[in-house]
């Protein structure tokens, strides 16, 4: 199948835009391809936005555990995380964001899916919580000031293509206060390692990715909270350099 247009340059099958350096065209694969039921090349933000909108609007959300992740609850209950400002990329239905906001944290959450943000907005309004919600791409629309005590993310790094991970880590380190911490729940290795979303990480991959901008990187094994018989997850805690 050819994805070439009349001008012979491949274009995104979702927005019709060209491949550019910081937004290359990638082949639709894995979960995204299944959700969109399409083949071809597309920009990562276009595919993530549309595939997640489909998933949230259909209620077909395989990763959702309907509760805050137990590893996060443990960090808060043991006071390893003390109330402060948190940026959460990719909150999805927002169990973690709601939990943090209910426990004295000031949360800013950004998701590329407008469906997810709309569902989360209704939820926080119903609960009377104050959470700043943004629809956007974590790689382009995240805050830029050094204003957060924590970045908390669950299962977002694993959705980003390899070429964009370093940019993500740089961006996240740059919005932490000098003693701020990155806390992530990240998909561990499976056999075979998938080459498309959701990607999987070894401990070495996580250390290599984070070590330029973070120090004291702690990696511990945790349950994913769902299909844990099949996949391994890591809790990663790292201090900004
Ligand atoms: C696997 S889900 C995890 C959701 C939630 N953290 C959880 O664990 O239930 C990934 C989330 O990241 C969002 N997402 C994917 N790519 C994104 C991007 N480039 N910028 C912002 N959000 C993104 C998706 O819409 C989705 O809500």
Secondary-structure map with pairings?
Layout: E1 25-27, H1 30-36, E2 41-43, H2 44-58, H3 70-77, E3 85-89, H4 95-102, E4 106-111, H5 114-127, E5 131-135, E6 148-154, H6 162-174, E7 176-187, H7 203-210, E8 214-222, E9 233-240
Helix pairs in contact: 1-2
The structure holds S-adenosylmethionine.
Tell me how many strands there are.
9
CATH superfamily of the largest domain: Vaccinia Virus protein VP39
Helix share bin: 25-40%
Strand order of the largest sheet: 5-4-3-6-7-9-8
Hetero groups in this structure are: S-adenosylmethionine
Distance N to C terminus? 47 Å
General description of the model:
The protein folds into two domains: 60 residues, no CATH class; 171 residues, Rossmann fold. The strands form two sheets. The chain has a seven-stranded mixed beta sheet with strand order 5-4-3-6-7-9-8, sandwiched between helices. The chain is built from seven helices and nine strands. The termini are far apart. By secondary structure, it is of the alpha/beta class. It is globular and about 55 Å long. Bound molecules: S-adenosylmethionine. The site of S-adenosylmethionine has 21 residues, from α2 and β4.
List the main descriptive attributes of the protein structure presented here:
Rossmann fold, 9 strands, alpha/beta, 2 domains, binds S-adenosylmethionine, 7 helices, 241 residues, two-stranded antiparallel sheet
